[in-house]
Write a structure and sequence with these properties.
Length: 114
């Protein structure tokens, strides 16, 4: 599965310019989103973790970032299962988001040169 399905995201968002704007916005916002989610994981409140994971997943779905969105969904599902499951799912999401950020930075630099 691709980190991001550019074609579907561009079609869904209504054009390449909007897609690149959404990618830029995501890159600006994702660190704060992940920090908020990290705090929820540290607190261990299943309801808050589920809500924050759903919030992160929403942003990822718009970008058609399949693996990252799936990792966020898995964290959302892990929320009621206990801290070890939550932490494992959160680490997976962190890894996927890190990979996605690199891919989006690469896309941003490509679009800036074309």
């Amino acid at each position: 599965m691709k980190l991001i399905d550019e074609e579907k995201a561009i079609e869904c968002l209504g054009g390449e310019a909007v897609f690149h704007m959404a990618c830029s916005h995501f890159l600006v916002e994702i660190d704060q989103m992940m920090q908020t989610l990290s705090e929820a994981v540290a607190q261990g409140d299943p309801q808050v973790i589920s809500e924050k994971a759903h919030w992160v997943k929403g942003g990822l779905v718009y970008l058609h970032a399949g693996p990252s969105a799936e990792a966020a969904k898995n964290l959302q599902k892990a929320a009621p299962l206990g801290q070890s499951e939550i932490e494992a799912a959160y680490l997976s999401l962190q890894g996927e988001v890190a990979r996605l950020k690199e891919a989006l930075k690469h896309l941003s630099s490509e679009s800036a040169t074309t």
